[in-house]
Design goal:
Length: about 170
Amino acid sequence: MKNKDTQLLEEAYEKVLLNEDGDVGGNHWGSVSSEGKSYSIYVMDVIKAADKTVKAVESPIEQFIPPTNLRTPANVEKYKQDILAGKWKWTPVYAQLWQGKYTAYDGNHRIAAAIEANKKRPGIVKTIPVRDVAGIIDQTIKNFKSGKETVIGGVPVRIKADDTKPSQ
């Protein structure tokens, strides 16, 4: 049986991380590649595993690669306005550190909003809290290639090659 804190956290994930399309904020597959092969890993699994095993750190906004091809640009504008109005409360984004820069795994719209807010008012966002999920993703791919399931922090992490069914 789940304790009350766990139940509340799970309810918060469902309410806070879903938009009207139900496909951003973790409840979807995220594409990654390794050694020329493409994989999809269930984003919410990575988020839950990272929340249990990866400490969030404050990283300078300049360390983030600007997200592109955002699915809901209206969210970026809304978040930017909240940042500019001082109403924004940061929660960690999930990203992979690559060649000294973070590339977003989850939190693309928040990162884009922070960058846009800084264009309007330089210095309004100096840092973004981030959890580096590269280790989780790398371990999940390694295990998948070996035919093993991945469980990190007690969280099963689902993965599929682009031409296969999801694990677990």
